[in-house]
Sequence to fold (217 residues):
Amino acid sequence: MQKNKKDTTVSAAVIKRLPRYFRYLRMLLNENILRISSNELADMMDVTASQIRQDLNCFGGFGQQGYGYNVTYLYGKISEILGVNENYQAIIIGAGRLGQALASSPVFTKRGVEVCALFDNNPQVIGKEVDGKKILDISEINNFCENNIVDIAVLTLPSEFADKGAQLASSAGVKGIWNFTSKEISAENYPDLTIQSVHMGDSLMMLCYDIRSKENE
Fold:
């Protein structure tokens, strides 16, 4: 876990909220707003000013009483905390529709991650380029990672191949997995990897539940 200057452990809940601060601060910079108070930021984010101050105090505060927050400075510090400035390199394992869509998405570059290659075992897609990134044969992963710095493997394989993808990523020496398959990948089986899973189906079902609940009120 990360620690602040007072050497206290930062909770997972605070870490989970940091990307949201990152997004809102980037919006402010795009609107050329360079200074904001905790109350103004709280109104934008629909949280309390106290919550914002508590969260940011975990990392040293970054604000000045009577002035608020310097948006450029705060955005830079949160980017640093989140590793946006580390220039992480990613590969995508599974170059089907989802994999190709992600490769073309700005979601990576906006967060300091570069997709350097895609991998698949389908002869019909191997050799093609997606947004300037070549689709390589999945058997070439180890060789590619030996000759290139790769930090992250994005899994967009069918769920039955999730563990195979994790094994490939682990053996290739990547540091983390962004798992888009519907299967849970046990961190205990891959202690050398940091794993984050995205379950789009779960999110969709929660949306449907909320709609249904409101209709039944």
